[in-house]
Design a protein that fits this description.
heterodimer, A: alpha/beta, Elongation Factor Tu (Ef-tu), domain 3, Rossmann fold, 2 domains, seven-stranded mixed sheet, six-stranded antiparallel sheet, 15 strands, 30% strand, globular, B: alpha+beta, eight-stranded mixed sheet, four-stranded antiparallel sheet, 16 strands
């Protein structure tokens, strides 16, 4: 009876990376860089949905989850923005063009960009949290007529830490986008907002009844941004957050990324806020 | 129990093992080793723990000689079948770093027979199947090993004080999903096995083993013994209600109390037949051009388990014990549609300080809704 089990050909091994070559390296900020990658064997890269991530493998050193920050309509450029904080990412920072790394993916749940057509969309991001949101923002821009108001709120530590600065400047010139940037602290030259991101939520105009919030950044920032949106009258079920845990297998086998009953790798990283709320209220969950 | 019941004399157990062996199965089953009953390769029925039983209690395990020559007169030792399907360490791939050329491991299918799988353990295999086969992704190594695994089940005719399968609805009697199922019929006057075939391969193998048709008395004796085994189990847990109970009591003071006793040693996760967590290790050779990736069993009790850039998500023993138990009894339902606990009691016996999960669940139930003083001050208005 058991011999019939999985008798058919075994499917592709989700644990096996594919070689990708770095086509371009862009230094974003001190210690933060962006890779543009393409399959080293000339294959087409996998298509992806905004909010998904890849596992990036560096030979003999290790593997980490990295969100995809490119344009989902342009998947031949696989874009990853990485901050050098540990042994692996510091090694990655030294890699130049033509270096080959391993990629598995894409994995995980996307931002619900299609389900929220017709609505006001508030994207709230902090620090490197703009990277996983950028594919969603690209999608909204491409399908601009399908949405009502589009608001991007972004917070950085100081003016020198603003990620994708040139793009943000371009977006701010659009007449059909609200793009607001705040910094935790700044010298006198800075003409923009100073303060935390949730404060920006109070300043912008949207219709809470028909608004969806997409939030990505440090957990404490996501928590207070969600509270600020709820206080403005947005329903908790219309808020989405992207969670970060230590995904090792990315397919629900290894158990590392569990958050309450969820595997962040496959039930997330994008969660509806009311489904994951205990993660923000219970310590060490 | 239903159709196809046969009676096989104790003396013909060796013929069954030989028949499996002749068909190319590697026979894996219980044997005495390292002062315990472990699972290892069997060559003949003399390798089985004939006449051995064990004394078990929270934090204690000792082999004892039985008064009789029972073949399955013990319950469960520290080993589980998962090690033969999901090895404690396994290479996932090799890679030549020049050009990043990956060589996958070709998962070798092995013909193996698990000889003496208890009902709770059969349930544990079904649970692992849900994790590794019936998920969005399939684990190729597990799938290759699992598909040619022949299961010789055994209905339990004895229990240990750690057992609580009866209350979990997972034993002591098998309910299908085996190739062959044995019930040991042992009295001072006879020593036979009642045999039931659950698959065509099982039936074919029994054609090569001397047996006769079972009579009503055989069946009645087997049922009586199994029923007595279920009744003698003193430990119990309300597994179905534990799921909601634990998920609504994440701030219960009992978590702190049990954390004072818990050594965070990971023994419970190593002996658990369903714990599946793993980590990976990347290695290179001295030339620096050849790298390998290995997967090893890991435990949510290890400090590094929850490490991500920025720190450990669960640094306290309290949070790690809570993670283990709420995952096992609560989160598992949402993830895999079943409890992760089968009532085998291994985690109770092999806990060096004798922590008993059934007692922990009962303590939380006794003060349902209580909140630890340290949690009350927390900012919970999100």
């Amino acid at each position: 009876m058991l011999s019939e089990l999985q008798r058919t050909e075994l499917p592709a091994d989700p644990m096996l990376p594919r070689p990708y070559r770095i086509q371009r390296v862009r230094r974003e900020l001190p210690g933060t860089f962006t890779w543009e990658l393409a399959p080293a064997n000339g294959d087409l890269p996998s298509s992806f949905e905004p909010g998904q991530f890849n596992m990036v493998y560096v030979g003999g050193i290790g593997e980490i989850p990295v969100s995809i920050s490119g344009d989902p309509a342009n998947p031949e450029k696989m874009i990853h923005t990485i901050r050098a904080v540990g042994q692996l990412t510091r090694a990655m920072e030294t890699f130049g063009r033509h270096t080959v790394v391993g990629l598995r993916g894409p994995f995980g749940t996307p931002w619900p960009v299609d389900e929220i057509r017709g609505r006001d969309v508030v994207l709230v991001s902090g620090g490197l949290g703009l990277a996983p949101l950028r594919p969603a923002f690209y999608h909204l821009l491409q399908e601009r007529e399908a949405y009502n108001r589009i608001i991007l709120l972004y917070g950085a530590r100081d003016p020198d830490e603003i990620l994708y600065r040139d793009e943000i400047k371009q977006w701010r010139r659009h007449l059909d986008l609200d793009v607001e940037v705040t910094v935790d602290s700044a010298l006198g030259r800075w003409r923009g907002h100073v303060g935390v991101v949730p404060e920006l939520i109070k300043r912008v105009d949207f219709d809470p009844e028909r608004t969806t919030g997409l939030i990505c950044g440090p957990e404490v920032m996501m928590k207070y941004s969600a509270i600020a949106l709820i206080n403005r009258g947005v329903a908790a079920e219309n808020l989405y957050v992207s969670m970060e845990r230590n995904m090792k297998c990315a397919v629900g086998f290894c158990g590392h990324c569990q958050l309450g009953p969820h595997f962040v790798c496959k039930d997330g990283p994008v969660f509806r806020y009311d489904h994951i709320k205990s993660a923000f209220s219970v310590r060490e969950l | 129990m239903s159709h196809n019941r046969m009676r096989m004399a104790r003396g013909d157990l060796g013929a069954l093992i030989a028949a499996l062996s002749d068909r190319g199965y590697r026979i894996l089953g219980p044997t005495v080793g390292d002062g315990a009953i472990i699972y290892d390769e069997l060559e003949s029925d003399t390798d089985l723990p004939v006449g051995w039983g064990e004394d078990q209690s929270p934090g204690a395990y000792r082999l004892v000689r039985r008064q009789d020559q029972a073949v399955f007169g013990f319950t469960l030792g520290p080993h589980t079948w998962k090690k033969f399907l999901y090895p404690a360490e396994e290479r996932l791939f090799q890679v030549t770093l020049e050009g990043m050329s990956f060589q996958p491991e070709a998962p070798a299918g092995v013909k193996q027979a698990f000889f003496g799988v208890r009902a709770c353990e059969r349930q544990a295999l079904s649970i692992l199947d849900r994790v590794f086969l019936e998920n969005e992704h399939v684990d190729s190594g597990y799938a290759a090993r699992r598909r040619d695994t022949f299961i010789v089940a055994v209905n339990c005719t004895t229990s240990s004080p750690a057992c609580f399968c009866a209350s979990m609805g997972t034993g002591p009697e098998h309910r299908g999903d085996f190739d062959l199922c044995l019930t040991e019929l042992l009295t001072p006057k006879r020593h036979d096995f009642l045999v039931e075939a659950g698959s065509a391969v099982g039936e074919a193998i029994m054609k090569e083993v001397p047996h006769c048709e079972a009579d009503e008395a055989d069946v009645a004796q087997a049922e009586k013994q199994i029923e007595a085994t279920a009744k003698e189990m003193s430990r119990s847990m309300d597994g179905d209600n534990a799921a909601q109970l634990l998920s609504r009591n994440l701030e219960h003071p009992r978590w702190h109390e049990v954390a004072d006793r818990c050594l965070s040693c990971a023994n419970c996760t190593m002996v658990c037949p369903t714990c599946f967590c793993s980590t990976v290790e990347d290695t290179t050779d001295l030339t620096g051009d050849h790298a390998e990736r290995w997967r090893r069993w890991d435990s949510c009790f290890n400090q590094d388990f929850s490490y991500a850039a920025g720190g450990h998500a669960r640094s306290s023993t309290m949070s790690r014990y809570r993670q283990w138990l709420t995952h096992k009894l609560s989160g598992w339902h949402e993830q895999f549609g079943t409890s992760g606990c089968v009532g085998c009691g291994r985690c109770i016996t092999w806990c060096p300080v004798g922590i008993d999960l059934t007692e922990e669940v009962a303590a939380i139930r006794a003060a349902d809704g209580a909140v630890a003083a340290t949690s009350k001050a927390e900012d919970c208005h999100a």
